[in-house]
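Q: Make up one entry.
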Amino acid sequence: MAVDNETQQASLRRTSARIQKLKAADVEKASKYKEVEENEEDYSIEKQIKRSKKKARMMTSSSGEVVELVKPEVVVEENHWEVEVVKRETERLSLGGCGDDDERSDFAKVTKTLRLFNKYYLHFVQEEEKRCNNIVAQIKEIKKNLNSKENKVNDEDLKRPSQRPDLKAITKIKDNKSVLYPQKRCGNIPGIEVGHQFFSRAEMVVIGFHHHWLSGIDYIGKSAGTDRQVKDFVKNCNDVEFPIAISIVMSGQYEDDQDNSEAVIYTGQGGNNLLGDKRQIGDQKMERGNLALKNTIEHGLPVRVTRGHQCKSSYVKKVYTYDGLYKVVKYWAENGLSGFTVYKFRLERLENQPPLTTAQVQFSRGRIPTSLSEIRGLVCEDISVGQENIPIPATNLVDDPPVAPTDLTYIRYLKISQNVKLPPPAEGCGCRGACTDSRVCACAKLNGHDFPYVSRDGGRLVEPKAVVFECGKNCKCGPDCVNRTSQKGIRYRLEVFRTPNKGWGVRSWDYIPAGAPICEYIGVLMKSEDVDTTRETNYMFDIDCLHTMKGLDGRERRIGDVQLPRHLQMNDSDAGPEFCIDADSIGNVARYINHSCQPNLFVQCVLSDHHDLKQARIVLFAADNIPPLTEFSYDYAYELDSVIGPDGVIKQLACYCGAADCRKRLF
């Protein structure tokens, strides 16, 4: 069985700090009563309780887009989110991957840059969808008004060239000087380990890993050879002949490529028709990238090698894995399969590097089961017992004998306590079929006159908001409306699995794009005042949207263009959350998602059937592009020394998330 500290972490991990305060109050009363009765003046427990009365905030994600350090304790980001920096004995980041660039790890810097790219990318996707919707509306209007064949207009007359949101995002990041490593460099890139997966070539560009979104060979040119920064990355720079190759991306564009992982026969650049059929249409020349590869042979400089494979989940239909450093050992010219001259380069992988993930699993396909019979360590075929759209199996390769998660009665929808009165339903919008015009949709107006989602990949949230207003039961639009994205149930193949030291965890068999909804936090909706503080209040989630929106209790204020209906009252938000969700014994798969100091999910408040912020839905979204079999996590955001046991003693629990910027303590 798992170790004791694992059990402790699993049982205490979602205990609300507000509930802990109630417990502390009970202990304080008992302590004072005992003092009066015994005429003692020892107030140590009371002092401990008072010191611990700090409220833990509901955690939400950050893109990490740091713009300016405004004051010592707060980092202000371009999207107006404020991230509180917690400082203890040593300065640690309050949020994984957020804070000053000098303090964060290389991995966190990479994550921050990729989140910024995803944010820009989705904003440009949103612009493109608006453009297309407007064109469709124009076509319908013109056809409606046509009365004769002479005035007939072909649909092609209104079409426009398709825009590339990824390229526009690259341009914006470059214009803002936000490329992580703008200076080209040889060797490994800090924060990018062997096995790192890119969902597009554009991601490589914004990191500064591979500076060309189309060309397969990246190199330092002659003009950069005298740059002082380049000399830091190239030994004996005065003796080096430029250009020098620093990175190649193998995407299968050339018919003469040969690849057996440890050794590569790479076809040089040029003479390819770039149409996807890999055919050569002309002779290659010893120039540019080809010359750069040749020069690396003479100077023994390594080259980064990244391989691309098919992936339906990526918007470019490929995913790219970094496989480490290779050395170009020789080159030659020959007639290719199409009869044209091509240059061939033999690359061999350097020793003492992590194993090749591409060769092992073919981008995880080799490890992902296709049926229940292929699942190793299967202990439960479906923890949802058929309630979810897709079965959620549970596996255990840790315990001996293996056990299944049996401490939960699974439900798909919130269970309402008897004394909880649901708010009146929202009026809803009058859109027909699907909501496409944000100028007329009443729900879009509540979101700042725009839809919070894009329809790409089944619906993705453009960026985290203080609150998202979705279409509800009184809206006239159908179930496929993009503004119902979080209501469509689980759409990825999830798995609950036993971890070595964190209890149960959750992961997916599918690639998940940033902004995609994972699941809603489900349990018993109850009044906070009704929580039984005499028992362990595990898995308690405060619904505190108002505090987040007003920036109370140290929360980051994220409200942007969200427009609140006039009837929403915010004056009583200082009293604390009125409602909470208890998933201790009744809940869904969200209950098993673990904490991380560098999470890949974020929490989003969503309003759909009603507009009462006090009873908002709690939905978990992907903060990053998440590869298959990567464990899900979000930040529980405990304040240190905020958890108190029934005896009034402050409890401490080590964090085992393994993040590069781990705070070492969960609470």
